Amino acid sequence: MPRKLPRVSPLEMRKDLLIAESELNRVQLMDEWDAATEWHRTLSAGARTVGSLASAAALVVSGLRAFRRKRDARNSTGTAWSEPFIKGAGFISSLWEVFRSRGCDQKNKQHEQER
Asked: Dihedral through CA 91, CA 93, CA 99, CA 100, nearest 10?
């Protein structure tokens, strides 16, 4: 005896298809969001690394500058041509430290709020 399949209305079939499409779109959006956040994490980790290296280099240069300043005071020579660059590196380093510490504070607050 042949079995009769239940008849599905066109509206019900359309509804089921829209639900399935919505679920596929949701999964695709989550994949894209994960890829974007991973890219952001990689970029910010690289920026932190570069910033740390720049900060360390600025500290070394400022130490060398202080050492040279003592030596130049004995020799009474004029200012070096590299001094503006050294001052700029020190300034950028201090700005980097301020902004990096603010970013870390904000991240810590976000993590505490999520818990």
From this structure: -170
